[in-house]
Amino acid sequence: MSRRGRPDWLVIARREFLERVRSPWFVVVTLLGPVLMVASIVLPALLGRAVDNSARVQVVDRSASAEVGPAVVGALTAVGWKAELVPASTAEPALLGRIKADAIDGFLVIPAESPGGGTVAYQGRNAANPIGMAVLQQVVTQVVQALRARAAGLPEDKLASVLAPVPFGATHTTGEAHGSSGMAAMAVGYAVMFVLYMAIILYAVNVLRSVVQEKTNRVVELMVAAAKPRALMLGKILGVGAVGLVQVAVWVGMSVVSMKYRAELLGVFGVAAGSWNVPPLRAADVAVVLSYFVLGYFFYAAMYAAVGAMVSSDQEAQQVQTPVAMLLVVPVLCVQLVAGDPRGTAAQILTMVPFSAPVLMPMRWLLGGASVGELLVSMGILALSTWLVAMVAARVYRVGILMYGKRPSLRELWRWIRY
Amino acid sequence: MTTIAVRVTGISKRFGNHLAVDDVSFEVPAGVIYGVLGPNGAGKSTTLRMMNDIIAPDAGTIELLDGQHPGRAVAARIGYLPEERGLYPKMPVAEMIGFMGELRGLTGGEARRRAGAWLERLGLTQWARNKVQDLSKGMQQKVQFAAALIHEPELVILDEPWSGLDPINADVLREVVHELRASGKTVLFSTHQMEQAEKICEHVCIIARGKKVLDGRLAEVKRAAAEEGRVALGFAAAADRVAGEATLAAGTLGAVRPPRGGTDDPLAVEVELAAGVAAGALLAALVGAGVGLRRFEVVTPSLHQIFVERVGRDAASVAARTEEAVA
User: Fold this and answer.
1) Who is most buried in A109, A416, B79, B234, counting CB within 10 A?
2) Of A187-201, A380-394, B129-143, B182-196, minimum mean pLDDT range
3) Closest CA–CA distance from residue A236 to any residue of chain B (Å)
4) DSSP assignment of A160-227
5) Residues of chain B with C-beta less than 8 angstroms from the C-beta of A218
6) A–B interface: beta-carbon pairs under 8 A
7) Which residues share a beta bridge with B9?
8) Which helix (H) or strand (E) holds A411?
9) Which residue of A has its CA nearest to B147?
10) Omega cis (within 30) before A70
């Protein structure tokens, strides 16, 4: 009897794919992913409204004129804060004691030099609330500026026209005709990076778990008698990867739709969308994102497969996978280097190194920081590294899947690779 | 049809400081049921794994079927039931069996058809769509057989097939092995359970501590052991026993031993023949001395007894203990 059926890797990939796609969890996660994505847009907006940024404050006015304090109290009360003026002689320990006793949230000290100079100091337990502090700073600034203007002889109506807001808009463009909102471009870049990071980690770890499970339920013995370990590893990576591709494609599709109808979605929850102009995702951009998912997934999945072959239990796998996970976490922590200056040296290096390129290059590309040439070089490096990693991983896998018990030392690992 | 299904020549395998298999050679004629016997840790599984290309021997060669080396080319013609049983717990039963068939070279349609046939034969048809993990242990064992045999291999290699089987599945397996044999397939299995082996094997190879102890046709192995063995005597009367023991007193013919397995018949004894003494010579001497006998029988030792004598009591008792533990 000769072999007539499908090649082993395909039979194995099909099994891995079907087992996952049929699981109710797959449907739940696939559908829940976009729901979470929508929630990540709507929830902050909802929560932002819900949080009360006002506070109970006491104001100590030590300035000579004693004009600043009452004006600040008045302005704060006007924006909904509970503010009261206390005697200039009130000592700091007494004020701190009131915060401790929960009588007030904080206190503002107006220095003797004010409004001419000096530092207006606030101490309070809400000092880390950025919105609250912005309000406070704005109130103090307006009051002090008004007093300075009066001292300089500027009438109040003139002052209003001087201090009138200057409309400013940033548009993100790479030199092509239609730019888009800078904030929106950045948001999409971050979202893509995050989805890539999540998807690569999720599915690469899935490969690891699957390898470990085959070892713990001993089905691996049956498998290696019927198929080459290399076909086993390839089939597993392809099968799990196909599941990932389906899921990521669904997610990308859903998020494009949800971004497009963002205003309507927010409107359903009664939140204003703001005037973002979401950058159009071109087919080329989607292709870049998916290419990096595929390459990055292969790169990391091969590593995780080798790690899975080295260990005999899930607990052990947790320990050993940490260094591999760090390879992907560190680039994510470096995201600001790419987002801040997509054409800078740091961005160039990070998007060429195969460990970080899968998550950072798509972002840099979407922000217009990379030329097509750079994109191709980065992809080439990643593809070559993936091939190398897969070769080494296959050797570790081949020996490792039949080993139970002791984890190999680095020297043994080197022997496996050369074996 | 080849005449030799498996030819193993001088294979050795070392794990660290432990020599698991030490220069083992044997031949398995095509179309027989062949038992590789030995105590635990004798190197049986290692030998079988080398035949399945799971590990490579350090030295020696293995030829399978038409002289092919273990590997992909011959895998479609071999079935293997590993000692470590395992299936994919979340896979539907019929797919699990079909999947193994596809890996062994069947087309998808053919694998599905045969998986259905196997399930029907094993009485598991109503479970076809259930997941493997929903099945009882006994049913999973049946699925395991089907997964090993779905591609109708010419050579079937079973590693400790009876370990952990309940009596009903043990019978199912024996039936399957006989059917395979009847359809001209070669069945090679390993076991430390001598009783199972004795019931079913035509050829045996005993290995212990990585080395081959003996091999050959079971009938010949037993005949050879019988020749150097024992004779069971039944005296006609108490006086005959006295006369008989007097004849044997010199010790040149053999020594009187209590019967194996024990008896409360005072007239039954066993004689362990001295070296070089044939059973006929003992009979002639007893008859010549006028000893009345109602029974004279050359005792054919059981495979277990042969195993104990050849492998040594220490090694064999390890095997017997595990056998008890399994039973």
Assistant:
1) B79
2) A187-201
3) 13
4) HHHHS------EE-SSSS--EEHHHHHHHHHHHHHHHHHHHHHHHHHHHHHHHHHHHTTHHHHHHHHS
5) 82, 84-86
6) 78
7) B61
8) helix A410-418
9) A222
10) no
What does the block give as tokens for B227? 């020749």
Phi, psi angle pair for B123, to nearest 5°: 70, 30
CB < 8 Å to A18, chain B:
95
Single-letter residue type at B38: G
**Exposed e or buried b per residue across A80-116, where buried means at least 16 C-beta atoms within 10 angstroms of its C-beta:** ebebebbeeebeeeebeebbeeeebbbbbbbbeebbe
| Contact between A19 and B88 (Cβ < 8 Å) | yes
Angstrom distances, CA of residue A272 to CA of A46, A132, A201, A263: 10, 21, 34, 7
How far is the alpha carbon of A244 from chain B, nearest alpha carbon, in Å?
19
- Residue B289: half-sphere exposure toward Cβ, Cα within 13 Å: 18
- Rounded to 5 degrees, φ, ψ at A82 are -95, 105
Interface predicted TM-score (ipTM): 0.77
The confidence band for B316, taking pLDDT boundaries of 50, 70 and 90, is low
Contact between A221 and B100 using a beta-carbon 8 Å cutoff: no
Cβ of A11 within 8 Å of Cβ of B80? The answer is: no
At B135, give phi and psi (nearest 5°).
-85, 155
Of A169-178, B44-53, B164-173, B316-325, give the lowest mean pLDDT range.
Answer: B316-325
Task: Give every CB contact of residue B107 below 8 A, 6+ residues apart in sequence.
Answer: A4, A5, A6
Instruction: Tell me the pairing of strands A106-110 and A121-124.
Output: antiparallel
Task: Tally Cβ neighbours within 10 Å of residue B218.
Answer: 20
Phi first, then psi: what are they for A74, rounded to 5°? -60, -45
* Model confidence, pTM: 0.75
Q: Do A223 and B76 touch (CB under 8 A)?
A: no
Chain A residue with minimal CA distance to B83? Answer: A221
Nearest CA distance, A313 vs chain B (angstrom): 16
Q: Please name the member of B53, B72, B102 whose beta carbon is closest to the beta carbon of A6.
A: B102
